[in-house]
Design brief:
Layout (H helix, E strand, L loop, with lengths): L4 H11 L7 H13 L6 H14 L2 E3 L1 H6 L11 E3 L7 H16 L3 E5 L20 H16 L8 E6 L5 H5 L11 E7 L1 H9 L2 E6 L2 E7 H15 L3 E4 H6 L11 E2 L6 E2 L4 E8 L4 E2 L7 E2 L1 H21 L5 H10 L2 E6 L1 H7 L7 H29 L7 H6 L1 H4 L3 H10 L13 H6 L14 E7 L5 E7 L1 H9 L18 H11 L10 E3 L6 H13 L4 E5 L9 E4 L5 E3 L8
Parallel strand pairs: 2-3, 3-4, 4-5, 5-8, 11-14, 17-18
Antiparallel strand pairs: 1-11, 2-11, 6-7, 8-18, 9-10, 12-13, 15-16, 15-19, 19-20
Helix pairs in contact: 2-3, 5-6, 9-21, 11-14, 13-19, 14-17, 14-20
């Protein structure tokens, strides 16, 4: 495989192990390490895994590429939600230490800070006045920043708080000061009761430990949340009751947090390993009138990828024993997609069109059904995930909507994995795949610059070309135009972002990392309408990204006033 300068830099900085002279060495290391979990025919599976990896049709999560087979004490899981934070100094310190160990080994972490008593409350045992959840979040933020200085991988955390926590206003406003809580993404756990109070113009009781501390007009609190989202892009909104109703494991767990990018809602000590299928490689006859998407090839690759990710659970290390127990009990994996926008462009479909959403939904449906069929076959071969309660599992909303033949096979054979799908941002692995559009996002720009940090700490900017644009110009001799269907993030209306997420969510048993880009001058009322559409569309959450946000200055483009500014969403909620 001949690497571009971008691919080579990404491979060398992120994924190359000592002694590896080519990316083929990396693929071989990963395939060998993962296939070691196979009880039979390990060499044959190693060969099949190696062929899949070398094609770049399947891109494992970064922790897998960087850690599998290296012998280092690292986890191969990208995503963790930590255990509950006990409302005591000992409990807080224990939770902080567990997070430090997890981040040190490469995992991103999510925390629900709702168990911590509000600012000004009196601690029963010591009599001291509590400083509140946000103050302790700053301790976590400093820890993460410190670990980041000693690691190539940027630390990432998610913090959630109940909408009815007495400190909810300070949580909503926590990132208004530049640089504040820079290692965190924030999401408010928005309940059905809160939304009902907003619609009815009622007060919302703010409670802690079962006691009402005070009451606030729900509409005022809602407005405050929407204003923060409109102005700085945070917090995101997590429809927590819907997340739990739709959870495949509704019968054994309560979810109150997600991983840092939001595509994997997890219970306490939950873990998940990730991978993405590279959709542009499944387009046949790109840019022609007969362009088509090869769903059969996608399904075949998905089946092999599910087996690969299931094996990762058995070869991965875990920072904490509680994480290992939870991962092995449920065998959650998160297979997703990347390059959706580029694939649509190559098929001649604008990202913001109804036809594009229809094709995207067909792709997601094909992927989901292939994943479940493979997991059922693996259950027949190796046994179901240990925590399975089959009748309850079949009664869950997502599983209930699967085709009858898949449900019948599950009833007969069980299922190997509690969850199979999660659509992650897939940012760095998309760069490794020669800069395909990330995850399900629109292409950022046809041409742009991206900031990187060299190994010596110095910054560098590279000029990049979107994958589909590069393919178009290479395929059409002398072409200097853009592909006819190409549209970048500036040209996609905010409503179309939400509509694309809504088209895919019915086929994702986890969640989707998606950011709704807002145009310059977008109002709070417009954001409220977007959130209402997301709610009505049964989405699990929504995050918006203002055009002028100072957060996540990685991708650089020219603004309408001719100035250079950041226009790049960080990976955030659902």
């Amino acid at each position: 495989m001949t690497l571009s300068s971008l691919q080579r830099m990404i491979w060398q900085r992120r994924y190359r192990d000592r002694g590896e002279s080519s990316i083929e060495d990396t693929w071989a290391r990963v395939a060998r390490a993962v296939a070691a979990a196979e009880p039979r025919d390990a060499d044959a599976w190693r060969s099949r895994f190696l062929e899949l990896l070398a094609s770049t049709a399947f891109l494992p999560g970064g922790r897998i590429l960087a850690g599998a087979g290296t012998g280092r004490r690292v986890t191969l899981c990208n995503c963790f939600v930590m255990g509950p934070i006990e409302d005591s100094m000992q409990g807080i310190c224990r939770a902080l230490a567990e997070g430090a160990v997890t981040m040190q080994q490469g995992g991103g972490v999510g925390y629900d800070f709702s168990p911590l008593r509000p600012r000004g409350a009196t601690a029963h045992t010591s009599g001291q006045i509590a400083s509140g959840p946000v103050s302790f979040m700053r301790v976590w933020d400093a820890l993460c920043a410190t670990l980041q200085t000693t690691s190539e991988r940027r630390g990432a955390m998610m913090a959630t708080l109940r909408c009815d926590h007495p400190d909810i206003e300070s949580f909503i406003d926590a990132k208004r000061s530049p640089g504040s809580l820079s290692c965190f993404n924030l999401s408010v756990l928005v309940s059905d009761a809160f939304l009902q109070a907003v619609r009815g113009g009622a007060d919302l009781p703010l409670t802690f430990a079962g006691e009402v501390v005070r009451r606030v007009p729900a509409r005022d609190l809602w407005r405050r949340l929407l204003e923060a989202a409109t102005q700085i892009g945070e917090p995101g909104i997590l429809f927590v009751d819907r997340v739990n109703r739709s959870n495949n494991l509704w019968y054994r767990e309560r979810i109150t947090a997600t991983n840092p990018c939001g595509e994997v809602p997890l219970p306490p000590y939950g873990a998940c390993n990730l991978g993405s299928l590279n959709l542009p490689l499944f387009v046949r006859g790109a840019f022609s009138t007969g362009a088509s998407f090869d769903g059969a090839a996608l399904a075949e690759a998905a089946g092999l990828a599910v087996r690969f990710l299931d094996d990762v659970i058995d070869v991965s290390g875990f920072p904490l024993e509680a994480q290992a127990r939870e991962a092995r009990a449920t065998r959650r994996i998160g297979l997703g997609i990347t390059g959706l926008a580029d694939a649509l462009t190559m098929l001649g479909l604008r990202y913001d069109s109804a036809d594009a959403r229809g094709i995207a939904a067909d792709i997601a449906r094909t992927l989901a059904h292939a994943c479940y069929r493979t997991s059922i076959a693996l259950s027949q071969e190796r046994g179901p995930f240990p925590a399975l309660r089959l009748d309850d599992h079949l009664a869950g909303p997502f599983v209930s909507a699967l085709p009858a033949d898949i449900r019948a096979a599950m009833r007969a054979n069980g299922v190997r994995n509690s969850h199979l799908l999660a659509f992650a941002p897939a940012g760095t692995i998309s760069l490794l795949a020669d800069n395909v559009s990330s995850g399900i996002e629109p292409a950022f720009r046809a041409f742009y610059r991206r900031r990187f940090r060299r190994a010596d700490g110095a910054g560098v900017e590279l000029d990049l070309v979107d994958y589909a644009v590069a393919r178009w110009r290479g395929q059409i001799p002398g072409a200097e135009s853009l592909p006819p269907a190409f549209v970048d993030a500036r040209g996609v209306p905010p409503e179309a972002h939400v509509q694309m997420q809504a088209a895919l969510q019915p086929y994702v048993d986890g969640a989707i990392s998606k950011t709704v880009n807002l145009p310059f001058g977008c109002s709070v009322e417009e954001v409220e309408r977007l959130v209402s559409v997301a709610d009505a569309s049964e989405l699990k959450g929504i995050t918006v990204f203002p055009a002028t946000s100072p957060i996540g200055e990685v991708l650089i483009a020219d603004g309408p006033d001719g100035t250079t500014h950041c226009d790049a969403p960080t990976c955030k909620v659902l």
